[in-house]
Amino acid sequence: MKDIFKQLEKKLIVSCQAEGDSPFNSPEGVLMFAKAAIMGGAAAIRSEGIAKTDLIIKNVSVPVIGLIKGKFEDGYVRITGSFDEVEQLININCPIIAVDGTKREREGLQGHEFIAEIKKRYNCTVMADISTYDEGLACAGSGADCVSTTLSGYTPYTAKSEEPDYQLVEKLSKALTVPLFAEGRINTPDIAKLVINCGAFAIVVGSAITRPTMITEWFVKQL
């Protein structure tokens, strides 16, 4: 585990995901994204779904952060929210498993309680995806091996912004003893550098690298 994190410090992780009617929405499509990202210097890949994550793990030499997306009853995204989903990721030898660490309940447990139970049941490395300072502290205290700000702005009780949650990164980086990954709305290299300067252990970027439809829309909107 320590060796994996050593590889990632101050580095870029690229989130290779495709959904809906995207022409890249297949295991082969996201694998091409992953290979291109690694050619550009990505130190790790973040991937969603068993088939896609499994294919990436088998075809790249960098660490992979795997997850399974679902939804809570209110429609908000949930990241790897059941023991069955954790087991599916373990079964494909996923090096790091991203788990929803928010205070919302799943399996009758809040995020930090769910993570504590995962660490009790399984031998796996867990990244806690959180949205607030308190969630980050609680997950780290419950055994999460690292914490990510992935869900800031994507829970009903956090404000959505056009920019990364710099304040959350700064506060958590000073309080945690486990690595803090920053993710969410990091859309330019300059912003990535700012987030690292706020104390992030490493950066996760998705849309600005692997969502060509969205990037095209940014340009079209400006024009």
Compact overview of the structure:
The protein is an alpha/beta fold and 223 residues long. The chain contains ten helices and ten strands.
Task: Give a description of the structure.
The chain is of the alpha/beta class and 223 residues long. It has one domain (2-222): TIM Barrel (Alpha-Beta Barrel), CATH 3.20.20.70. Helices cover 42% and strands 18% of the residues. It is built from ten helices and ten strands. The chain has helices spanning 2-8, 27-39, 50-59, 83-91, 111-121, 133-141, 166-175, 189-197, 207-210, 212-222; strands at 12-16, 44-48, 64-67, 69-71, 77-79, 96-100, 126-129, 146-148, 180-183, 202-205. It has an eight-stranded parallel β-barrel, surrounded by seven helices. Strands 4-5 form a two-stranded antiparallel sheet. α5 runs parallel beside α6. The relative contact order is 0.13.
Primary descriptors:
single chain, 10 helices, 8-stranded parallel barrel, 42% helix, 223 residues, alpha/beta, TIM Barrel
Numbering strands along the chain, what is their spatial order in the largest sheet?
1-2-3-6-7-8-9-10
Name the shape in a single word: globular
Which percent range describes the beta-strand content? Answer: 15-25%
What CATH first level would be assigned?
Answer: Alpha Beta
What's the helix count?
A: 10
Question: In which range does the helix fraction lie?
Answer: 40-55%
What is the mean pLDDT? 97
Indicate the structural class: alpha/beta
Total count of domains: 1
Please give the CATH architecture.
Alpha-Beta Barrel
| CA distance, first residue to last residue | 46 Å
Let me know the CATH homologous superfamily. Answer: Aldolase class I
**Uncertain runs with pLDDT below 50, 5 residues or more?**
none
| Main sheet makeup | 8 strands, parallel, barrel
Instruction: Classify the fold: give the CATH topology.
Output: TIM Barrel
SS elements, strand count: 10
Computed Rg: 16 Å
